[in-house]
Amino acid sequence: MKQDIAFLQRKASITSSGAILLGSHFVCDGFDWDREVAIVTHIHADHITHFERCLGVYDFIFCSPETKELLITLKGNWLRLRRNLIVLPYKKPYTFKDERITLYPAKHILGSSQVLVEDRDGIRIAYTGDFNLPSTKPISTDILVLDATFGDPAQIARCSRDDIIDRLICLVKKELDTSSVCILAHRGKLQEVMGILSEMGISVPFLCAPDIYKVSMVYQNYGTNVGNVLSLEDNAAQEIIQKGERHIIFHLFGRRLQLLPKEIHYTKIRISRWGTKEPYYTIADDYYIVALSDHADFNGTLEYVRECKPKLVITDNYRAGSADSLATEIRNQLHVEAKPMP
Predict the structure, then answer these.
(1) pTM exceeding 0.90
(2) What is the pLDDT along the chain (342 residues), one digit of tens a residue?
(3) CA–CA separation, 103 vs 115, rounded Å?
(4) Domain 2-154+295-341 belongs to what topology?
């Protein structure tokens, strides 16, 4: 068995710069000089840090159709001219030399992918990217490179996603009675919340910065009802602000709150992936945190591994999370060899 694990360990790794190396030829969400083909699993910043570098070196950079459109939206239309940024539809294998790659959907943000590499020895090597459960279907594999965002055993969701959504909707409706609302979140999560509120009949205008608006239009083009959304550059949006009409503004978390319209008081609701112990926090009279995660919690992560039935698990110790704890629990609870990297 030890000899088998040593053999498998040579087929996947995570570098000190966060590149996920699968098989002999492929690198995911990073850059490595010794690789020939890159894969972008989704457009969050910690997964596209080396994207431009990949463009200048690799002949093949694969991603889902949705991820390509989002990359073009974020980086510029010049990307449409790049022949090496190639759409690979889900479940459509591509053979490169002696290995085959296939992308599978992951429930995280629009276009998120899992990656499977099958090598010449018949070994299956999978990378989850970021994912949520139960909406993501696990991949049967020999080697699993695993997102460790909620790798701590204490990070267990205390109530269901549906309950959290119900609380969010009630909170937004209540606050709209007395003020406009500012939703603070990351890309993808902003658009998800637009869709949730729209589907629940909240019909006040949704305002956002031009770049957020453009991302929202990609979501809309791929089937998400993002509601009555307007760019802050539009005259209609400025008129809503000047008249003091109720609205919801969607603001990218990490941007300065001073960029919000100064003449409007907003109740702020931060949508966070953290806080699995409690789904809802009150920070101040006009500031709340709602823990609507787009990652599997600890139990969901273990369940994913259980269904994959891997022989070796590598937990991602480069990106935020608890890779050491997760590897320990996989060994102890599932009796599967696991190690954090890098």
Answers:
(1) yes
(2) 555 899 999 999 999 999 999 999 999 999 999 999 999 999 999 999 999 999 999 999 999 999 999 999 999 999 999 999 999 999 999 999 999 999 999 999 999 999 999 999 999 999 999 999 989 999 999 999 999 999 999 998 888 888 999 999 999 999 999 999 999 999 999 999 999 999 999 999 999 999 999 999 999 999 999 999 999 999 999 999 999 999 999 999 989 988 888 889 999 999 987 655 677 788 888 999 999 989 999 999 999 999 999 999 999 999 988 999 999 999 999 999 999 999
(3) 5
(4) Metallo-beta-lactamase; Chain A (3.60.15)
**Alpha-carbon torsion (225, 227, 228, 234), positive or negative:** negative
Written as one letter, the residue type at 330 is I
**206 DSSP β-pair partners:** 229, 248
- Give the DSSP H/E element, type plus range, for residue 330: none
Handedness of CA 33, 75, 317, 16 (dihedral sign): positive
Q: How far apart are CA 23 and CA 212, in angstroms?
A: 36
CA geometry: angle 115, 276, 316, nearest 5 deg: 30
Side chain identity at 241, as an amino acid letter? I
Q: Which CATH architecture has domain 161-290?
A: 3-Layer(aba) Sandwich (3.40)
| Residue ranges of domains in the chain | 2-154+295-341, 161-290
| C-alpha to C-alpha distance for 42 and 249, rounded to whole angstroms | 25
